[in-house]
Amino acid sequence: xxxxxxxxxxxxxxxxxxxxxxxxxxxxxxxxxxxxxxxxxxxxxxxxxxxxxxxxxxxxxxxxxxxxxxxxxxxxxxxxxxxxxxxxxxxxxxxxxxxxxxxxxxxxxxxxxxxxxxxxxxxxxxxxxxxxxxxxxxxxxxxxxxxxxxxxxxxxxxxxxxxxxxxxxxxxxxxxxxxxxxxxxxxxxxxxxxxxxxxxx
Amino acid sequence: xxxxxxxxxxxxxxxxxxxxxxxxxxxxxxxxxxxxxxxxxxxxxxxxxxxxxxxxxxxxxxxxxxxxxxxxxxxxxxxxxxxxxxxxxxxxxxxxxxxxxxxxxxxxxxxxxxxxxxxxxxxxxxxxxxxxxxxxxxxxxxxxxxxxxxxxxxxxxxxxxxxxxxxxxxxxxxxxxxxxxxxxxxxxxxxxxxxxxxxxx
Lengths: 201, 201
Description:
Strand content of chain A: under 5%
Helix content of chain A: over 70%
Number of domains of chain A: 2
Largest interface: A-B, 26 and 26 residues
CATH superfamily of the largest domain in chain A: Tetracycline Repressor, domain 2
Mean pLDDT of chain A: 87
Oligomer: homodimer
Largest sheet of chain A: none
CATH architecture of the largest domain in chain A: Orthogonal Bundle
Shape of chain A: elongated
């Protein structure tokens, strides 16, 4: 049998995808490195060539799952819309992602994936921060936003949006009211007077 | 040997305290009802006389650990200070509780206690909401706060405060800046112009 030598980047991705699928099924805590390598059909040595530890591959999984969200924000930033419209789109993106039953949410709410949840939030923040900072600086320069604390304000808005969207049990009416409240709060926090935020229910 | 018949409220509390101590040591997931009853030296039947399930006693533990915090808020509400000063004290209380190494924090960050974390947040919200709503209504009536969304705004401020205090890794300077930002944001969100919030580092 010929031994297939894989491209290192490809092999690394294979390991990450195997880990992701096991973490989604069994949770991070109950997944052993031996199970990850078994799934990819390589030895433990190969694993430790790419990753220092199980926690190290967890961070890689977190970065992989947040990548499309960071990409969405990057695309919003590239557009021709004004800074307030861009902020509006980013907040709607967060609300939509949190509402969905997609992979990332399933993964994060799987039993034993509390640490992954933390790593995902960190990876999201690290990926999005520089892009968002640029949008906010531009908005302040243009006089659309009036605040001395743009980054902190945006951090607070994201935290609150996540807090809002975690309250799954709300009925439609409460959600609608919360969204209206968040539109008002966003205007106040960023000091916006000439733009009306609109969050989708 | 004489069988000691305990007062039902006392027995119930004993079970809650045993569960709390086991959840703190081993985590909720890895604690069995059989271990709780063994610690109190009663039979399983006694447990099920007081609680429907392990999740039921988890809720009782959550209510017990949040009780002193709800009591603090109740005492703040009773004081003679103005509504803005009261809000300021409540936010400082949250910051201080999150910073501490006390029982509740240890309990919540113990592996396997993700569900307890959720129950604690729910119990805090349920306990504090009616008290806070009264403070906010008074502040709006007196013209100290200007907002159409008092409850939502306060939820937003609490989420933001928790978000802030979860970033343990920050150095003193970043924390100071974040506190100043939060003071500014609180004024904006509640529409306060005649009071300067002051959060302790």
